[in-house]
Amino acid sequence: MTFSIWIMLFHWIFRAESVPNVQYDILSRKTVLIFGGNGLLGSATTERLLRSNFNIVLINRGNWYWDTADTIKPFVRHLKCDRMQSLQRCSGLQHYIWSLDAPPMFDAVIDFSAYHPFEITESLTLLQGKIKRYIYISSDSVYEVCNKTHTGLTREEDAVRPKEDKEREQYILKDDYGNRKLQCEETLRSQVDDVTGVPFVALRLPDVVGARDNTHRWWIYQLWVKLSEYIDKPLSVPQHLWNRPMSLVYANDVAEVIANVITMGPQVNDEAFNLAFNEMPTLVNFLHSIMDALNLDDIDIHVDESVEAFHLFPSVRLGPIDTSKSKKLLNWNPTSWHDVLYETVAFYEDAVRNVTFHSARNDVIRIIQQHLTRDPAKVVRGLWNEYKVMLGGKHDEL
């Protein structure tokens, strides 16, 4: 630890001892700073950490999705900030970091919302000397811009860009999102040997599933199955995905790993980890599983041979990922696909009728009406026939 950091730490402790009403529990409870924390994965993680009595500082734009205004907002310190703008403009965050309310060191920074390397750089600069470990939520999309040289499950060491500049640029054009997520990882890796370097862990996730998903992908598929007789477009899967297994991961399982990584030893430092279910269903398997969970007779699934065939899973082309490394070093033991399937289907079935979620439900219905049918009124009729939900009232206008 540098001399300047020792001085800063001494100064903070001295101030804490000299102010009678300072919050002394900050010294005994672990404190994490979370960028994001209000989406599917972020809210699951925040709730998991709250159950373990962590102090939580949440940095996001202030959008409270689903019921997070009730389940999360009252129990965290929230600072409004837009990561797409410079953190220098987030006066509330800067004021907090150097206030008596802030700890001398954050036990972890958990970053759900960095999609550009400059966002990582700004975070490290602003919080220099105050981070014990940086946990970055990455994606299996990073492999899309890398030169995988085998046909097996994708492993962490496959995240190697092509050496030739021309080939590297060609790969970048394939997946801008994957390129930017890998750039974020590269930014973290490039600073670890600096005097002020911060240990990091990157979690590479496939498509995340669970309750309260803002992408609505699962819910759209579930309603496409449940309301199939009221939707013009037949239930279908692109031809190239018909027999292709895919990796998915459960939000609550990732939240559990994050909670554990905060206190793990140095063996996980500066490493990337794949996380996914043990099971690797095809999209066809996924749809049949939803039918089973809804207790419906099998519905015909059509093969869509068109170039622009509609699909929401999977979001990558390389196929499933290998989680052996996570099982060895992170004790990764995911919930069974069967249990998550039935739990998630039950949540979205209830959410159709739950007035708390009427805004999210209407968003899903609107997407179905715009992209999967020629007659929007049939979908409204299906909602009434299947769920006894009538759209068109004061709160249900589409």
UniProtKB/TrEMBL annotation:
GO terms for molecular function: UDP-glucose 4-epimerase activity. The lineage of its organism: Eukaryota, Metazoa, Spiralia, Lophotrochozoa, Mollusca. GO terms for biological process: monosaccharide metabolic process. This is NAD-dependent epimerase/dehydratase domain-containing protein. It comes from the Eukaryota. Residues 1-18 form the signal peptide. Residues 32-275 form the NAD-dependent epimerase/dehydratase domain. It comes from Dreissena polymorpha (Zebra mussel). The keyword Secreted does not apply. Keywords: Signal.
